[in-house]
Specification:
mainly beta, 8-stranded mixed sheet
Length: 487
């Protein structure tokens, strides 16, 4: 016996509101008796941290903490179909040798479901047991992106799992999993304005100076004649007004950048005094710094990773002065997109990701064709949000903008009532195997109804976004390239 998952289509990346469909293909070499076949759409957020050596009680202790959150859980019973189950009231079924295909279809929600899951149901040898949740910290947010981070300290994965349940307790259930990448829809963006977010720093250069040699002296009885170059240097004398500058890094407000796109960045250099010195840019570096907060039970660790978007040194670029405010040429970075390994900003129960843009500018100055040796390198830091670039459907935005506050509870109630609890196999029914032949085209094939394995009585009602999303199709538009492994 073997079972595998085959997805429909060639879609390489899934997002909220997408449908994912396919077939669970069961191959048999002989007659097999089974109870059911379930297919699940699951998402997990796993963290794994090791206690620092200095905090261990003994040097040889290897204390590792793990924490797992089920951010997505949907399940359907693809076999037996509901009408077969209701007609026969049987609890076991016999499938003949051959290849059996069972179609399934799921729709991705907006938010995670971890906050609604106060317990986890585990099936052991046909017995359902309830295990406590891994942590009492739950956050209801948009589904996070797929992530594999830093030697598997943090993993967010999405997969389809098929399980063939066999009635005999001494026979192992057959399972298979099929992973796929997930990239979430971005939040609604505010209307563009002329406002800008900025980081600013000022710098005062040291007074530029020159040295003069002492004049030549006449010979005397005890001293020979000296040239001007042989004499001691005279005190330093300023040759220009000390240059005072201000450096700005600016982004549109709110500070949002987009995956796979270049930064909408402006860099300004402003003269704050009337110095006649000329400004030269010697160095420019732009990097995106990711801060990943990982939690595992009582342990917590923040890791920083840096992605250099562009870096140039020894530039010697003269900044032409049309007025006191000089804007650095955007052509240095406008064609450099964020790499496809950058995940959008997100937060889930045990993993969160935030970003900063660091802009390093190296300036020097000169006067009358002479370049002064002083070089100042200033770093400007700006907190930013990284969006996925997958915009929510217009229909959803219109529905969310036009709904009164009292409609939320009504929509949620109707959504729940539209999905009555599924009927369960009767444990008192006498075993009466039904034999299905894979060659017979009249075999009942399950279309898949919502049937979570182990019902959760305390599930919270869906939000308005989730309720109206049932009637809205998948996102139509640009899909981003995303490679989810980091470190």
């Amino acid at each position: 016996m073997s079972i595998r998952i085959q997805l429909n289509g060639s879609q390489s990346l899934y997002t909220n509101l997408d449908f994912i469909s396919g077939n669970a293909i069961l191959s048999l070499t002989r007659d097999e008796t089974i109870s059911s076949i379930t297919v699940k759409l699951e998402g997990e957020s796993k963290t794994r941290l090791m206690v620092e050596p200095m905090l261990r009680r003994r040097r040889d202790d290897m204390v590792i903490e793990n924490e797992v959150h089920k951010v997505l859980y949907k399940a359907i019973t693809v076999f037996p179909p509901e009408h077969v189950q209701n007609a026969t009231r049987a609890s076991v079924y016999t499938l003949q040798p051959g290849q059996h295909e069972f179609p399934f279809k799921f729709k991705f929600p907006f938010n995670n479901t971890c906050a609604d899951r106060q317990a986890t149901v585990v099936n052991i040898a046909g017995l359902q047991m309830q295990a406590p949740a891994s942590s009492d910290r739950h956050i209801k947010q948009t589904l996070p992106p797929t992530l594999h981070y830093f030697q598997d300290q943090a993993i967010i994965r999405y997969y389809i799992k098929a399980t063939v349940v066999r009635p005999a307790f001494y026979k192992e259930n057959f399972r298979t999993e099929h992973d796929f990448p997930f990239f979430p829809i971005e939040p609604p963006r505010s209307a563009p304005t002329k406002r800008e977010s900025y980081a600013r720093i000022q710098h005062q250069f040291a007074p530029p100076t020159s040295t003069a040699k002492s004049p030549a002296k006449a010979p005397s009885l005890f001293r020979k004649a000296s040239s001007p170059t042989d004499g001691p240097e005279s005190p330093l004398t300023p040759i220009a007004t000390p240059l005072h500058v201000c450096i700005d890094a600016r982004l549109p407000d709110p500070a949002v950048i987009t995956c796979n796109e270049a930064l909408p960045l402006r860099i300004l250099v402003t003269k704050l005094n009337e110095s006649s010195a000329t400004i030269y840019m010697q160095l420019l570096q732009i990097e995106l710094v990711a801060s990943t907060l990982v939690r595992a039970q009582e342990l917590q660790r923040k890791n920083l990773t840096s992605t250099v978007l562009m870096s140039k040194s020894n530039m010697g670029m003269r900044l032409l002065e049309r007025d006191k405010v000089i804007e650095i040429d955007k052509g240095l970075w406008k064609d450099i997109p964020l790499p496809n390994t950058v995940a959008p900003t997100f937060e889930t129960c045990n993993i969160s990701r935030t970003y900063q843009v660091h802009v390093k500018v190296g300036l020097t100055h000169g006067h009358g064709g002479q370049l002064f040796p002083e070089l100042t390198v200033q770093t400007l830091k700006m907190a930013v949000s990284v969006y996925s670039g997958i915009a929510p459907p217009d229909a959803l935005l219109r529905a969310m903008a036009g709904v009164p506050s009292h409609v939320t509870s009504t929509a949620s109630t109707s959504d729940i009532s539209a999905h009555p609890p599924p009927s369960k196999l009767s444990s008192n029914a006498e075993p009466h195997p039904i034999i299905l032949d894979p060659q017979n085209s009249n075999n009942p094939i399950a279309t898949g109804q919502t049937h979570p394995e182990g019902s959760f009585e305390d599930d919270a009602p869906p939000t308005y976004e989730e309720a109206v999303a049932d009637g809205i199709g998948p996102v139509q538009g640009v899909r981003r390239d995303y490679q989810h492994r980091e470190g």
